[in-house]
Amino acid sequence: MNLAQHSARWYNPDTGTLDRRIFTDADIYRQELSHIFGRAWNFVCHESQIPARGDFFMSYIGAEEVIVVRHRDGSIHVLLNSCPHRGNTVCRAELGSTRSFFCSYHGWNFDLDGTLIGMPNEVDFYRGEFDKSAWGLGSAAQVASYRGFVFATMDSAAPPLDEYLGWVGRLGIDMLAGKGDLEVVDGIHKNRLQCNWKLAVDNLFDWYHVKVSHGTSMRLGLLPEETISADAQMVILGAYGHGIGGPGLKPGQLEALGRRKDGDTSTDAEWFDMQAAWRTQPGVREQLGETGVRSLGHPSIFPNLWVALTNQVCLRIPRGPLETELWWFTFMPTHLTPEQRRTAIWSANHYFGPAGFLEQDDGENWSHSTRGAGGQFTGARPLNFAMGLGQDYVGEDGGQHSIETVVNEHGQRWTYQNWQEWMLAANWPELMATGSPPPDGLV
Ligand code: FES
Ligand code: FE
Questions:
Q1: Backbone torsions φ then ψ of 249, nearest 5 degrees
Q2: Cβ(116) to ligand 1 under 6 A?
Q3: Which of 128-132, 219-223, 239-243, 416-420 has the lowest mean pLDDT?
């Protein structure tokens, strides 16, 4: 018996109903920081952002600001941005290059691996008896990369990154990393929404809202109706809450991918061509697998990383129970021609991020959903995530498992079931022993 079956404290897997107070309750939020973000492997940056010794990028693990830095030996360290003397930040820049981190309060100086290497008047005022080796910056317990995507965990008991991601998490990253050597475009788009972070995560699997929420974008032609594929959806569920959900091609359909509209030379049509062309390249099918190559869905790496088809990834960073900061990283394969690069950046800017059409529509709805979760009476009424519950099967193609069906809420249910298991588990060993394996058979 797994944890979800033990307790339907917030989410009931039998009915697909969810206690919506998880979107506003301050105690639940604090527990998320310790039980989820404090334990998970969190995406912090891409290696191309810190190519040289001393390069750093400021990121987050949950609510904690961390400095991701390339040490002189080439290794990557993830340091807590707080001086152990009085707690001042030791770095105020979002990115840059440095030889050390110098605290602006009293001048303690830290090496690139966080070691305390200098203190003003150490001999005179501390009488030469201070143990510097015990007072470095705090750091992540484990740091690792998968295909250039750097992750860190504060928990030494977390399984290795490769095992944590499993085949579904790796596939999600492969869908972007497989496009070639990547570099991050300068400038991470950052914007805040008045919503709970989980609503921004469960939306990745939501292909029910598109025609309604994004009706304007569809009428403008930015989002052609055929991209929604309401009758050809594919959901891939992985360990620890990872998943991929969205349109899926039927076997044999891949070869038919080509220019969406004959003779259409508009920028967005060109961009879709670039995506399609990659999927049909030799070697990509071997890389992604028979099921993976047919998935055009949204990969979600639990807890808060979304790999978008627009060559972007987005972090949904919690800023308290009622606020989320979205960070959009745009990636470019280095082999693109200047023309293709312009097209890809155009697409990234117009779909998502603060200037994009789509998440402006979404953010407004998530804010109001969060507001509705906080009411005395509205908050007491559960939310319904039952679409498709008990009506679909997990199938297999080329050794990979997926659910191929119509628009559904399997991915959202998997997210909340895993969220609940993370929240109820006392530690990593308990989560590994009692967490639900990805489902098989009827779902
Ligand atoms: Fe950093 Fe005092 S707070 S040196
Ligand atoms: Fe949307």
A1: -85, 145
A2: no
A3: 219-223
